[in-house]
């Protein structure tokens, strides 16, 4: 069945360093790949997304890359700050099936001051 | 961005009672809403897809008679946990799909259910 794998499960970086989270997906028909940030006790918040017709997208300190051939996509956070500490989820969905979204297992990011 | 409101944020109930959680899209019409369950330190597990005016579609392993979903209007979906038991204690999150049919989801703040 459809599956999204996410690594690492935990990531600890020093403030100012970069953080990279990687995901792979199984359904080649997936065409929308959002990334969500979830803080403790709250719902996920969309931070960036990318569609299958684009290879890279950047928004200030956050960037996402997509390799459709390999079915890989990654989140890059540069110049990390303590407030970036949270759980990050990647996800994949496709228009067929009503954009049912499959989530990765999540990455707990710790940014040490 | 679009706002999705979820209520209550926290609820504690006795075993055997039923609890209703509401999910509202405040500034857009959501023909489709999704309900998720999240255990501590785990990912979001899709429970069901709620379509306005029709029966919800449940994921495999989710008891439809246990988790009643009603999507009576374009801005409101409700999840009722019936005859709740301690194992139903969890964080329940709803999301609504944006009106542009782009796939973007907007999430509620979640509801933490504790069954004593």
Summarize the SSE layout with pairings.
The complex is a heterodimer of chains A (113) and B (116).
Chain A: E1 4-7, E2 10-14, E3 19-25, E4 32-38, E5 45-51, E6 56-59, E7 62-67, E8 72-77, E9 86-92, E10 102-103, E11 107-112
Parallel strand pairs in A: 2-11
Antiparallel strand pairs in A: 1-3, 3-8, 4-5, 4-9, 6-7, 7-8, 9-10, 9-11
Chain B: E1 4-7, E2 10-13, E3 19-25, E4 32-38, E5 45-51, E6 57-58, E7 67-73, E8 76-81, E9 90-97, E10 105-107, E11 111-115
Parallel strand pairs in B: 2-11
Antiparallel strand pairs in B: 1-3, 3-8, 4-5, 4-9, 5-6, 7-8, 9-10, 9-11
Written description of the protein model:
- The complex is a heterodimer of chains A (113) and B (116).
- The model of chain A has no long low-confidence stretch (mean pLDDT 93).
- Chain A is built from no helices and 11 strands.
- By secondary structure, chain A is mostly beta strands.
- In chain A, strands 2, 4, 5, 9, 10 and 11 form a 6-stranded mixed beta sheet that branches. A 5-stranded antiparallel beta sheet of chain A has the order 1-3-8-7-6, with no helix packed on it.
- Chain A is globular and about 45 Å long.
- With 116 residues, chain B is mostly beta strands.
- Helices cover 0% and strands 52% of the residues of chain B.
- Chain B has no helices and 11 strands.
- Chain B has strands at residues 4-7, 10-13, 19-25, 32-38, 45-51, 57-58, 67-73, 76-81, 90-97, 105-107, 111-115.
- In chain B, the strands form 2 sheets. In chain B, strands 2, 4, 5, 6, 9, 10 and 11 form a 7-stranded mixed beta sheet that branches. In chain B, strands 1-3-8-7 form a 4-stranded antiparallel beta sheet, with no helix packed on it.
- In chain B, strand 4 and strand 5 form a beta hairpin.
- The termini of chain B are far apart.
């Amino acid at each position: 069945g459809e599956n999204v794998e996410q690594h690492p499960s935990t990531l600890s970086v020093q403030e100012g360093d970069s953080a990279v989270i990687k995901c792979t997906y199984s359904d080649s028909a997936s065409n929308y790949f959002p990334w969500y940030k979830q803080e403790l006790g709250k719902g996920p918040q969309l931070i960036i997304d990318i569609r299958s017709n684009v290879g890279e997208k950047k928004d200030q300190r956050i960037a996402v890359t997509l390799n459709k051939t390999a079915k890989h996509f990654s989140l890059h956070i540069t110049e990390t700050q303590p407030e970036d500490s949270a759980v990050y989820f990647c996800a994949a969905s496709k228009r067929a099936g009503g954009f049912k979204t499959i989530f990765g297992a999540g990455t707990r990011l710790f940014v040490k001051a | 961005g679009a706002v999705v409101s979820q209520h209550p944020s926290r609820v504690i109930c006795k075993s055997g009672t039923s609890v209703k959680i509401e999910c509202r899209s405040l500034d857009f019409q959501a023909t489709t809403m999704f309900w998720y369950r999240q255990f501590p330190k785990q990912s979001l597990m899709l429970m069901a897809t709620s379509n306005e005016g029709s029966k919800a579609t449940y994921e495999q392993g989710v008891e439809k008679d246990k988790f009643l979903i009603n999507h009576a209007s374009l801005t409101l979906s409700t999840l009722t946990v019936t005859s709740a038991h301690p194992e139903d204690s969890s964080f329940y999150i709803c999301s609504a799909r944006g009106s542009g049919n782009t796939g973007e989801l907007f999430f509620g703040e979640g509801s933490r259910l504790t069954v004593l």
